[in-house]
Amino acid sequence: MKDLEKFKKYISGELEEGDLWEFKKSLEVDASLAAEFELFKSTIGSHINKKHQLMNELNDIRQRHSRGRQISISWKRISAIAAGVVILLSIGIGLIKMQHNTSYQALYDQFFIAESASFNVRSATNSLEQPVLDGMQFYELHNYDAAIEMFEKAPNNLMGKLYSGLSMMELGEFEEATIKFEAIIKHNDNLFVDQAEWYQSLCQLRIGNRSNAIESLQRIADDNGVYKTKAIKILKELNEY
Question: pLDDT per residue over 189-199, tens digit each?
Fold first, then answer.
């Protein structure tokens, strides 16, 4: 893996400030959805072909009947064909939804890298409230429920809000996490806005809010922040850039 050593240091919070932001700018993750997409296309393609065959048969019966030809039609057969069309349409729609959800989750899994607390704690120890420090320790131990409980004791602390949102992402509570990130974004004048916008866009992507995710990602892509490259990459995957 490229830059493996830097990657390990980033995860463990050992990168110094200059190296940390430089590494965030250069960090890229390659998309690998081609095989999954090909499988989907072959599956949905098979159902679409069957649907067309059934629709053509129904159309042929209707045309012959409208011309007054003497034909023997089994209404059970027609009902069965119609039911088959409905079922196949439902399967097709279900597969499309499943593909979208899978694609969004795959993109999320590719681009979500948990933020290490070590660097932020070392650079702001003197200014942090004790509950936030305790919450950071729980976060580093992957005890996210306990971390959130601690962060809630310092409700106005922006770093606490950021890591509370990250803890919720780890627990799969994406809707709740977006609320924490939105509060940071609305505050505006703080060091965590870039991170909050990035993680909020990932949450929107993960829960399938495509339009909200695209809107957020486009703002990041238009800016010169550390997540610009990643945002552009996701937008390209979504065919929106």
Answer: 788 999 999 99
Report d(CA 112, CA 90) in Å as an integer.
Answer: 32
Instruction: In whole angstroms, give the CA distance from residue 78 to residue 71.
Output: 13
Distance CA 7, CA 65 (A): 70
Q: Where are the domains of the chain?
A: 34-111, 113-237
As a whole number of angstroms, the distance between CA 203 and CA 80 comes to 43
Q: Which helix (H) or strand (E) holds 88?
A: helix 75-111
Residue with tokens 């296309």: 41
- Write down the pTM of the prediction: 0.59
CA distance to 40, 159, 232, per residue, from 36 (Å): 6, 38, 22
Which tokens belong to 234? 């996701």
For the domain covering 113-237, report its CATH number: 1.25.40.10
Q: Determine the angle formed by the axes of helices 193-206 and 210-222, rounding to 10 degrees.
A: 150
> Nearest 5 degrees, angle CA 79-CA 82-CA 88?
135
